[in-house]
Amino acid sequence: MTVEAHKETLDFQAEVSQVLNLVIRSLYSNKEIFLRELVSNASDAAEKLRFEALTDEALFEDDPELRVRVTLDKEAGTVTISDNGIGMSRQEVAETIGTIASSGTRKFFEAMSGDQTKDSELIGQFGVGFYSAFIVADKVTLLTRRAGLGQEHGVRWESDGEGSFTIENVDKATRGTDVVLHLREDEKDFIESYRLRSIISKFSDHITIPVEMEKEHYGEDEEKPETAEFERVNKGTALWMRNRSDISEEEYHEFYKHVSHDFENPLTHVHNKVEGNNEYTALLYIPQRAPFDLWDRDQKHGVKLFVRRVFIMDEADKLMPRYLRFVKGVVDSDDLPLNVSREILQHNRKIDTIRQANVKRIMSALEKLAESDKEKYQTFWDEFGKVMKEGPAEDYANRDRIAGLLRFATTHNETDEQNVSLVDYVSRMQEGQDKIYYITADSPAAARFSPHLEVLKKKGVEVLLLSDRVDEWLVTSLTEFDGKQLQSVAKGALDLGELEDKEEKESSEKQSEEHKELLQRMQDVLGEAVKEIRVSQRLTDSPACLVVEEHDMSANLARVLKSVGQDAPQTKPIMEINAEHPLVERLEGEQDGDKFGDLTKVLFDQAQLAEGGQLDDPAAFVRRLNSLMLKLTAG
Ligand code: ADP
Ligand code: MG
């Protein structure tokens, strides 16, 4: 067969070279992992083939024994990792090797601090497995051919990792991928069979596909054959099938790195075998750090589904709800059919049961962690809290349990760290307090210093400070906890119930009556901009604030929606004024209509600014403020 070579030399994406350099530098102290990563890719490729071949046996060609081989060539100075897995087409090579696809790239660079130690921790989260080859190699050649007899040519990719790579079509008789590492001068001592064997045992023992090396030792009566014979190096019993008591912590960790493509150890794991009429094993891990694609809609690698040890698919959303999408691991079912398709998974009772049980297991693991190791739990919360907050809306049935795991910043703490549970909050509720108060804003500072909190601060009532975007979403579904209603301090009339004594209640009614005329004059100035103006029960220090009606969309949510280009209904705010504030007293005495108008508008604009809003006409605000200041300085 003649093949048109089509040799191209292409530049790496600019970012790839940078990532490469960082990988080499930061993983240098742990060089051996290059083999783990390449064997892991090879075994993934073999598992993909095994799965695709369930419906298309021809993919096996004449070679159904899947395996990974590690060979070495002392003279050439190379180590080669080959598999007879699914292989790649030219387009797949160009897309996956040489570009770092996914929006993860940009986020990765945003997260990079320039501090090498910190950045090298980030690397692990980023799925740079293949590039780890360049830790030990100064040239990498990849030869691959997609499985299936119709595939007319293979592909050769080569790079020195310095900024460009070549790609061309070649003949390749066998399917699968060979990755040839031309070792750097000072890394040649990796070309030793015993060394490679020990690395494979250390990192890849649990891989179910055989990882083979050339047989070297023959008995006295045996003759070394002409063509190389291979023997299996890894034990290959699926780790999750073994008894918990026989698995070391280190083995759990190595397996985690293989399934999750993470370089760090997990935070914790749960491992269960379930018997009965839906038999399966679940080994689930909670990572230490959020991956870069946590917010990616089409993020991959979650919980893998196996059926009787055969890999079926990466299908996080069927085995875990979206708000637990950070969970990694495997579920291996004894009862599902091998040819299970995505469609079947959608409506499969057994899968539903497994998924519900998985949720319960993760909940228990998190509850235990929160109980036994607050610091570790905090690590978890800081990384995954925002995702967990999607839980109450998505998983109504488990709402109370999820609520117990949530952590918040509150006015009780000096810092904005999210570390207060609702149980803590309830335990600190004041005599006569029957609600859990919260405020939503677009930054921790805007929440903490919002005028809406003033009276609650004075009364020593704790308020949850919600400033993650997802919080608005959270409070629409989490409306109560432990029988106590969650109440926004920026909505409705702020009925403080028994927190207010009789005298305070009376005085507020009296005040509205007393200032009727002022309220009317202000309403005339502001017109359509406000729904109503009333005397506030919320304020102690600020002259005014804006609130919305109990069932209206919060101003913060309207801003969030606008910022992502969505329509938000125009909700007119209610303006509340603090009748005891000197500025308001001054306003009440103002007879000059122009001055009254200016001052009223400035108070309204200020109230918008104080809650993090934007003015429709900032220039007019500045003009009015300046004219007031001039009058002030003029004495
Ligand atoms: P990850 O394994 O996390 O996806 P890698 O950098 O290790 O990231 O690999 C990138 C991609 O390259 C893989 O997802 C796969 O599509 C492809 N790939 C790498 N090695 C092989 C292989 N031996 N056979 C087939 N595809 C491979
Ligand atoms: Mg990989």
UniProtKB/TrEMBL annotation:
Residues 30-187 form the Histidine kinase/HSP90-like ATPase domain. GO terms for cellular component: cytoplasm. Residues 560-635 are annotated as: C. It comes from the Bacteria. Residues 496-525 form a coiled coil. ATP binds at residues 37, 41, 83, 88, 103-104, 125-130, 177, 342. Keywords: ATP-binding, Chaperone, Coiled coil, Cytoplasm, Nucleotide-binding, Stress response. It is found in: Cytoplasm. SUPFAM superfamilies: ATPase domain of HSP90 chaperone/DNA topoisomerase II/histidine kinase (SSF55874), HSP90 C-terminal domain (SSF110942), Ribosomal protein S5 domain 2-like (SSF54211). Its main location: cytoplasm. SMART domains: HATPase_c. GO terms for molecular function: ATP binding; ATP hydrolysis activity; ATP-dependent protein folding chaperone; unfolded protein binding. Pfam families: HATPase_c_3 (PF13589), HSP90 (PF00183). PANTHER family: HEAT SHOCK PROTEIN 90 FAMILY MEMBER. Molecular chaperone. Has ATPase activity. HAMAP family: HSP90. Belongs to the heat shock protein 90 family. This is Chaperone protein HtpG. The gene is htpG_1.
